[in-house]
Amino acid sequence: MVRAAAPSDSDTTSFAARLVKKAASRFRRRESDIDPNVVDAVEKGFDVDYYITAYPDIAAAGVDPVEHYLRHGWREGRNPSLAFSTRFYLENYPDVAAAEVNPFHHYLTAGKAEGRIGRHELGFRWDILSRLKPVADQIAEYKSHRSPVASDPRALLQSRLAQALAKYRTKLLLSFSHDDYTQHVGGVQLLLRREVELLRADGYLQMHFYPVHPLPFLDTSGEPVQLGVLLDGEPVGVFDPEDIVACLTHADALAHDRRFVIHNLLGHNMDQVIAIITASDAHQGSFWIHDFAALYNNFKLLRNDVEYTGVPKPGTLSWELCEFARADFSHRDEFAKLFDRFAIDLLSPSRSALAIWEEAGIHVPRSSRVIPHVTLREAGAPRSHEAEEGQPLRVGFIGYPADHKGWSVFEELVLKLGDDPRYEFHHLGKGRRGGLPVTYREVVACESEPDLMRKATAVTRLDVAIMWSIWPETFCLTAYEALAGGAAIVTNKCAGNVVDLVEEIGPGVVLKNEADLFAAFETGDILRFARARRSVQHCHLEYSAMTLELLEGGA
């Protein structure tokens, strides 16, 4: 069994340990139609800690993880450990699939001895590709999980908007994003929570819209998209688009200065967004490049969600072979409606994101400007570096464990070197994943304590942060937090602004691919690089005023 994560103050390790102890005894205590020999064999290789963190619904249900996998999990394509892919084994060995036997049991008792392998050499990329569905099917699956939400009456929105504007505001800023930034965790959400405070101080009323039901694409179905509405960061309710349009049609009588800012439109209907902006008679608009949804149907610009090769162009192999290009809608055509209708100022958090946008040449804004979300300022004198000979190098992943952020590459690194005494692995962020010898510390920054990740990096004394994003990051706040906390960055050439950050500020290393990453650790090159640092400089994070920097009176 893979060694479990080290205990921490806020994780599920103790729960996992209890399940591990009870799994075998529960099977033996009760009558079961599952062959006990199968149970015994599978338990020896099964990773309970991995299973309950990879599939939180199993932990929430309180069912026995081993029994669940043997009865249902393998048929649902779930994996019993990081080292075994159920889907791959069944697809690669059709005789096993035809025999209708549990694939993990077959691998442990016969397959391994026969020279069969439990996981594709492409690793997580194969798993992503094996799960990839046509875009229409992806959207249908998202919509199948939706629960009906009752819309609030138009009068409520009219009343709340009139009260807010009449009380102390003369300036109205319509704001759009993909979710309720007051309830969700993420870099953009944290920045939006800061932005509403800045807008309030400058006399703006922020009226924020987000789709009630999330979707990683624009909604081109033609059906009305229900929108949640926030005023000054406070929830008002859920409204139909026609009611929002009706309320804003007379907003000019309440606010003489009306503008809009687009942070993210995933889940929105473009015609509906345009109708809302038009109804408000907003005369100036800004568009932030937080991702690349305006350029392609995959907002990360990843071909089939696994590889970045630039902005795909119609007629090229990258376009023809990509599932996202086959959709019956085009993000670039939908966003063209917005840029053709309004004069928009383009705001980019980094030079690299703006360069990708301009090289694509798809949408032409009125102007463009780079406004970094944060800058680094030295905090006191550097301290001596503590990565001494004989001490393990502290290597960490920072943030949410998502594939496009490089979590699966970090997993592979830990699987290869988790027992190597030269290294000590850490995860700082939200969403613990089990099955790895990794010390986990939960870190969730908020507007009242935006500096928590920098502090956690410093307290943990991370020597190296693996920032292995497989898409071109438009900014990557966690990379700045890692540097500010004293860690060096290890990244790859496709990671967008993370690369610029390392090359312009450092310290860090930019590697070509994952083979080079694994080799750098196996040979000890990373150790030599880290120990060559004579000192560690901690920094403060100074946040920008974001959209307000472009607006009249912004600081």
What key phrases describe this protein's structure?
555 residues; alpha/beta; Rossmann fold; 3 domains; eight-stranded mixed beta sheet; six-stranded parallel beta sheet; 23 helices
User: CATH class of the largest domain, anyone?
Assistant: Alpha Beta
The CATH architecture of the largest domain can be given as 3-Layer(aba) Sandwich
Number of strands: 18
Tell the overall outline.
globular
Our measurement of the CA-to-CA distance between the termini, rounded to an integer number of angstroms, reads 56 Å
Order of strands, widest sheet:
4-3-2-1-5-6-7-8
Helix content: 25-40%
* Mean pLDDT metric: 89
Count of all domains: 3
Number of distinct helices: 23
Oligomer: single chain
CATH domain topology of the largest domain: Rossmann fold
Report the β-strand fraction as a percent range.
15-25%
- State the major sheet: 8 strands, mixed
Low-confidence stretches: 1-17, 27-31
Strand pairing plus helix content: what structural class?
alpha/beta
